[in-house]
Design brief:
This protein has about 210 residues and is an alpha/beta fold. The chain is built from 7 helices and 10 strands. It has one domain: Alpha-Beta Complex (Spore Coat Polysaccharide Biosynthesis Protein SpsA, Chain A). A hairpin with a 2-residue loop joins strand 2 and strand 3. It is globular and about 40 Å long.
Length: about 210
């Protein structure tokens, strides 16, 4: 397996959430911890782009051998400034672009995208809705570097060759921006945990003779 980098954006101020969402509890860890762990289920390195409260992310992951944290001092200029900074650290011939507030992306989504890679940007889609992570060839780095900061990543992608991969997983849309979305995330997790416990507690009785 080739070395594969994933650029993960975690710079925002979580204004719509009302509190910093990256370190909100999720499972046995946090939202960002889970997003990183899922990416590392397929990738060899995650490049976390920090901004707001970046020193806390640096302290949290500085001992992790597969996580590099780069701090975007200009994070208030918008997401594209973080994308540009993160892609400058990429060393692999293809790389993923992911969001730190999406803790439900399983490693198989990364694997499915990788299986269909080519000289184009590949975007997962489910029920005709686009999502993350996105797989890009390293050739896109120069295009990103040369693009005007006023552009969005969507606009930069649409200037080149891009394609969609249909996946059967609505989690590619599941970013956590608001308190209601976080509550729904927690409820789904509790439901899943209950289902697992119920399955573990099921007693198999022998058939009568």
């Amino acid at each position: 397996m080739a070395n594969i980098d994933c650029v993960m954006l975690a710079a925002g101020m979580s204004t719509r959430m009302g509190r910093w969402k990256m370190m909100l509890p999720y499972g046995d860890s946090t939202i960002l911890d889970s997003a990183i762990a899922n990416a590392l289920g397929f990738c060899q390195r995650v490049i976390v782009v920090s901004g707001f409260r970046g020193e806390e992310l640096q302290a949290r992951y500085q001992q992790h051998p597969q996580v590099d944290v780069v701090h975007n001092v200009n994070y208030q200029q918008g997401m594209f400034s973080s994308i540009r900074l993160g892609t400058e650290q990429v060393r692999s011939s293809y790389f993923f672009l992911a969001l730190g507030d999406m803790p439900c992306i399983t490693h198989w989504i990364y694997a499915a995208l990788w299986q269909e890679k080519g000289p184009f940007t590949l975007i997962p889609r489910c029920s005709h809705g686009k999502g993350h992570p996105i797989l890009l060839p390293a050739a896109m780095i120069e295009r990103i570097r040369a693009a005007d900061l006023g552009l969005s990543m969507k606009q930069v992608i649409e200037q080149g060759d891009y394609r969609f991969l249909e996946v059967g997983d609505q989690n590619i849309h599941c970013d956590i921006d608001t308190p209601d979305e976080y509550q729904q995330l927690q409820q789904r997790q509790l439901c899943q945990q209950s289902q697992v416990k119920a399955a573990q507690a099921t007693t198999i009785f022998p058939l009568p003779r």
